[in-house]
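Need a sequence for this fold. Nothing fancy.
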């Protein structure tokens, strides 16, 4: 049984090696790059959001409404996503205090966006998501089989990582044990998130709706709605604002950093005409699971200490991937017959 598990572990490891390296390196890059603003001392209301929407509508009159989000410095910059009729996406950066447009860039052009796309789909869309989903399931199998076939686990943890006659194998075992819980966590949550996104992509149809412009939300409405949302949930931060489309309500996503993982994010719906909150519906258990999975997978909705822990574990995963590659090359070299034996065999 142990020999069979070892073969499964070895061959699945070889199959998952390349995408695992991509996941590890891009994950390290996303953790190093600033990706989400830290908690503010007091809730911030973007009072200039309506002026920014009006200016964006003036510059791009045929653009569709997109998501409004706080930037890395919420007191100085927010972002507004637009999509033209020809499918070109743009990101406008504006000052939340007066609505002044600071910069206009094409969506997905930043280093963080490229790393995120590479991390999720290898830059090839739906096929890449399927590859990464299979990799997540493969990593889960690797973690289980690696733990099952390893002997003297406590002894391995107590000793120096590169001890013994085979230091590379010892390092691989030690790193795998130390990063086991983190690898299991990321494999399970990553598979959940990718499966959710992939099913959404498979079910999505080409947009046939008419173009919706920023004029669908009256001036001075969004700032008041944001203030109402923060007043209803003290201590929360605005995670994003989705302006109304047609007669649909305005959605404001709120982030509570002190809440448990399944309750960190909530969505408040407000009537687009009156700005009054609509009756809240209970969050389905499935969506609570997705919120918890995203929170646990990214670590970006927690403290800086959690991000530091994630970065250290991601570096251990990098050592784990590199040591597995070197072990494969070492095993291949050891199994190759020496030149003298090869000549004697062919003579």
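Here you go.
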């Amino acid at each position: 049984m142990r020999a069979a598990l070892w073969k499964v572990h070895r061959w699945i490891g070889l199959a998952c090696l390349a995408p695992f390296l991509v996941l590890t390196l891009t994950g390290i890059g996303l953790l190093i790059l600033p990706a989400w603003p830290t908690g503010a001392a007091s809730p911030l209301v973007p009072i200039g959001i309506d002026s920014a929407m009006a200016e964006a509508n003036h510059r791009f009159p045929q653009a569709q409404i997109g998501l409004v989000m706080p930037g890395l410095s919420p007191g100085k910059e927010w972002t507004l996503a637009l999509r033209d009729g020809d499918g070109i996406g743009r990101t406008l950066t504006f000052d939340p205090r007066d609505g002044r447009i600071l910069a206009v860039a094409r969506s997905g052009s930043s280093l963080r966006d490229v790393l995120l796309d590479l991390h999720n789909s290898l830059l090839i869309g739906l096929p890449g998501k399927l590859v990464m989903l299979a990799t997540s399931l493969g990593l889960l199998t690797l973690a289980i089989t690696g733990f099952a076939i390893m002997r003297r686990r406590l002894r391995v943890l107590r000793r120096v990582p590169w001890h013994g006659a085979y230091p590379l194998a010892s390092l691989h075992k030690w790193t795998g044990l130390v990063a086991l819980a983190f690898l299991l966590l990321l494999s399970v949550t990553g598979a959940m998130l990718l499966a959710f996104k992939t099913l959404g992509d498979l079910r999505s149809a080409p947009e046939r709706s008419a173009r919706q412009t920023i004029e669908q939300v009256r001036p001075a409405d969004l700032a008041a709605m944001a203030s109402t949302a923060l007043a209803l949930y003290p201590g929360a931060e605005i995670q994003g604002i989705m302006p109304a489309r047609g007669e649909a309500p305005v959605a404001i996503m709120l982030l509570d950093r002190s809440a448990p993982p399944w309750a960190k994010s909530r969505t408040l719906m407000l009537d687009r005409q009156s700005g009054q909150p609509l009756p809240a519906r209970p969050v389905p258990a499935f969506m609570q699971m997705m919120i918890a999975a995203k929170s646990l997978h990214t670590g970006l909705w927690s403290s800086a200490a959690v991000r530091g822990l994630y970065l250290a574990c991601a570096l251990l995963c990098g050592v784990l991937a590199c040591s597995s590659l070197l072990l494969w090359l070492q095993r291949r070299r050891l199994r190759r017959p020496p030149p003298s034996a090869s000549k004697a065999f062919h003579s």
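For context: The longest strand covers residues 78-83.
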